[in-house]
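User: Here's a chain of 338 residues. Predict its fold as tokens.
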Amino acid sequence: MAADLPGLGSSAAQVIPPARRRFRRPSAKIIAGLGILAFFVLMAIIGPMAAPYDPSAIGPDMLAPPSAAHLLGTTQTGQDVLSQLLDGAGPTLIVGFAAGAIATALSVVVGVSAGYFGGVAEEGLSLLANIFLVIPALPLLVVLTGFLHSTSNLAIAIVIAVTGWAWGARVLRAQTLAVRRQDYVASARAAGERAWRIILLEILPNEVAIAATSFLFTVVVAILTDAYLIYLGLGPINTWSWGSMLYWVQNNEAFTSGAWWWYVPPGLCIALLGTGLALVNFGIDEFINPRLRAGGLSRRSVRRASKSHGLTLVLRPDGVRDDGTLTPVRARPAGTRR
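Assistant: Prediction complete.
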């Protein structure tokens, strides 16, 4: 590394520590996102058992603010808001993760098949994905849910998945087109391996991170869409979820009456859950992207070392290679202007 830093002499090796290639601590984004996600999953599991009251029970305290008896206050009919919040976490997460799983499965099947087989299959599947991409999602969701005879959580999840798989299929198709040209795929094909074995053992392992990113993105969209549909009265309003809480909030004019303790908790939970999933998504993107991974590690090491040695090291725009090493840099005394 000293040879890459002309003018710094033998101290160059001390200025820039070598990149750690074998082990890298998970980023703060992934840790924070997984912590938030674990909290809400735990809420969904033990929420119905931990609820202090029956969420549908009508009580004498109407629109009571938070107190010792009702930690998050009550609704217009005296129902406990905290009990509704805890009881509604499960259905909300079920819709989000079910829609994400179904949409990701469709994306993998359509995208990988189109990218690997090519020809007429690729053209047909790509045309199908393009059709779903150009159709406005929200109007289609409203129309589909309007034709449903039973608006259960599973039905809402299927409708959201059917309208949300195309984007992930396009990304996986493009990645499959690049992977199928690799030497190991050509070798497996020349050895007589069947197509399904090549897809499962050679191609899909290289696309797990992309599929995970697509899954997390779809879960976030599904949770927001589920709340939006129920808020409009197109979902299961008689089953407690965060979306049904917001439906009854607007139906009973809680916004105008100033009952903030009724609508802030479900809205805040939806926002925090979406933030946690987004943080995990960004963390996975940093981990699988070699430029982001090498760039973040090397630049942090440079800044940390330059502060301790009184130098300001300036990387060129191409200062980080894909293998994590640094190209030559120039050094100047700290505090000087360019």
